[in-house]
Specification:
With 203 residues, the chain is an alpha/beta fold. The protein has helices at 4-12, 33-46, 52-75, 104-113, 126-132, 142-146, 159-162, 166-172, 187-192; strands at 84-88, 117-121, 137-138, 151-154, 177-180, 196-199. It folds into two domains: 4-58, no CATH class; 67-199, Rossmann fold (3-Layer(aba) Sandwich), CATH 3.40.50.720. The relative contact order is 0.15.
Length: 203
């Protein structure tokens, strides 16, 4: 029943840690952190001094990204056959076209393997995503991606996804389901608007 954002706020009050990067999400990606942690694991193993903490961090992150498709499926009742899922955001973070180790590279194929049709939009990463993601239907904007879908999933916290016309989103969806993997919206607000809403680490 804990709220991960309250927990993060408490941890961030320790000045040795800080609050800047304590945001729950679907797993880390990008060009630096995944590469550096793997390099550290390999170097330590080669030196005969394995770093179990770093190894476990890498394993947990990989498992977390893979588990996100299951979270989407659970929010949609468990069976994705014949269902359409709209993914908003494909890059590993906003304001980049970088797709390296992005959670979408695990989430989209897993949803397709469960029988879903995936239609997606990203403000900057579409060209690179099209090269890396087979079977995804790419759309021209967030509302195009949402139209006719049974659920919408926020994978990357682009500013434009923080300011969606939620009434329009609800009308475009076949079912009012949002899975917010970046905790962009407030659960009480989404419930008040009539959405079935799931997020990360919040009751």
């Amino acid at each position: 029943g804990a709220d991960v954002q309250q927990v993060a706020r408490g941890i961030g009050l320790d000045k040795r840690i800080g609050a800047k990067f304590l945001h729950a999400g679907p797993g880390y990606g990008g060009s630096c952190f995944p590469k550096d942690t793997l390099a550290l694991v390999r170097t330590a193993t080669d030196a005969g001094a394995p770093l179990r903490l770093i190894e476990t961090t890498v394993q947990i992150n990989d498992a977390r990204k893979k588990a996100m498709a299951g979270k989407v499926a659970a929010a949609m009742g468990g069976d994705l056959k014949g269902k359409t899922v709209a993914l908003l955001g494909l890059t590993f973070k906003p304001n980049t076209d970088d797709m390296r180790d992005a959670p979408s590279l695990d989430v989209a194929p897993a949803l397709i393997a469960m029988g879903a049709t995936v239609q997606a939009f990203d403000p900057e990463g579409m060209h690179e995503a099209a090269r890396l993601l087979d079977g995804v239907v790419f759309k021209d904007g967030p509302y195009d991606a949402v139209e006719g879908a049974h659920a919408v999933v926020i994978l990357t916290e682009w500013d434009q996804f923080r300011a969606l016309d939620l009434d329009r989103i609800k009308l475009l969806l076949r079912e009012p389901v949002m899975v917010d993997l970046r905790n962009v919206y407030r659960p009480e607000d989404m419930r008040a608007r009539g959405f079935r809403y799931a997020s990360i680490g919040r009751a």
